[in-house]
Amino acid sequence: MDRETLQQSAEKQRQFLNGFAHQILVCAGLGCQHNDEIIKTLGRVIAAQGQEQRILVKKVGCMGLCAAGPLLRILPENIYYQGVQPGDAIEIIAALGKVPVQRLLLPADLPFFTRQRKNVLALSGQIDPEQIDDYLAAGGYNAVVTAVMEMRPGDIIRRIQESGLRGRGGAGYPTGLKWSTVAKAAGPQKYVVCNADEGDPGAFMDRSILESTPHAVLEGMIIAAYAVGASHGYIYVRAEYPLAVQRLKLAIREAKAKNLLGHAICGAAFDCNLEIRLGAGAFVCGEETALLQSIEGKRGMPRPRPPYPAEHGLWGKPTLINNVETYANIPLIIERGAAWFAGIGTDKSKGTKVFALTGKIQHTGLIEVPMGMSLREIVFEIGGGIPGGHAFKAVQTGGPSGGCIPAEHLDTPVSYESLSELGSIMGSGGMIVIDETTSMVDIVRYFMQFCMDESCGKCIPCRVGTAQMYGLLDKFCNRTATEADLATLETLCDLVKTTSLCGLGQSAPNPVLSTLRYFRQEYLDRLAPLAPAPLENQP
What we know:
Elements: H1 3-18, E1 22-27, H2 35-48, E2 55-60, E3 72-75, E4 79-81, H3 89-94, E5 105-106, H4 111-114, H5 132-137, H6 142-150, H7 153-163, H8 175-184, E6 191-196, H9 205-212, H10 214-228, E7 232-238, H11 242-257, E8 273-279, H12 288-295, E9 319-323, H13 324-336, H14 338-342, E10 352-359, E11 365-370, H15 375-382, E12 392-397, E13 403-406, H16 416-421, E14 430-435, H17 440-454, H18 460-477, H19 483-499, H20 503-507, H21 510-518, H22 520-525
């Protein structure tokens, strides 16, 4: 497919959509229940009224505000409805072009919508994820045509380097530097891999992107393959994400049918094939070397580095690994330029970041904000604050590997460096809000149990250390711990952090260390009561 053919397909779809007086967009993400029945009911009512040519019902990806689901959006009026049920269909259709249904109305000027800056999520909630023509109509795959037909691989890598994009999977490694390393690696066969093994408790960023805009991820992977000289790629996704897997499979078939995947893409001398590999739910397979082992059909266990995957990856070949959100940023940078992306965010943390905002917060859901926005703005403006009249206590970022940040640091701008200084990490984008009713020791014990259960057992510090730390935390929760236990816990944190083989063990102590730093009194309050001193000279 060349640019002219691409534009013709896009224009045809735009004309089709513009032919309707009203569009009813129904959130078809995994978080909105009953959406299939809502779509069917709306369709029956429209057909019964003979309005099929005037009203289009379209399923779309996640609209973000999961707490208010199921969500509907009416175009062109830009009206949002919340908590919609199948029985509301007649009333909703009757109100089109008239006074909205007040009991279902969700203000479109809600800070949750207006305070975000959506780049990666710009099309989420607007296009049908199961229709490639919808993606084309919104400008999809233009970046692939530009890259393959008009740019040299080195030019693409330089653009990514100049943009300042850093990996969105957790460590924040410079994406362009990783690409250049793979491009320079010798060998006739190279691979690109998408890490979609999202396993953090409370995290659903990658799942939502895959469910809502799967073609954006494919587009980023195709461009990456062309830039580094790869011809084959794998998307490693959790089997627990059935809707994401289903839509990815469909997207791959659609892209192949349009000659955007496969042999001689866009008529150029460039072949690229992508396929899916399902993970079995092992959290450790989010670590890149364990992920590669799993793709090869082996037990998913980390291996020492170096050598790094960029030089010795899948089957010993140079391999590029990025996560879902990183790849989804690539088409935007190719189309809009490095300066555009670099103009968003902070000096060292460029662009936007997608977060799953959950916990004790009014507006739970999926958000995207520019790097540098403060935690206070995210929690109290976008998130709507703490429900039930309770006070904010902490926000946990980075999943089980992250840290807990107290109220005194709410004005901290969100960036890789600032979170690290506070003893936490960006991670893949989980953000859990904690209120005053929650014990920090209980929270930490939960995360330590998770890390203990998910440890692959290959290295002793992680296998034994996490179990020992969990046992000590359990003593604190049961009020049987001593001051000696507290000292041992701190010693173990340092040992596990500095001697574990992979990132799981190296970061497992983070929640403990951050809560000891900011909430130490809660540990002291959980110490066993001191035994009364023996009475002397008793008769």
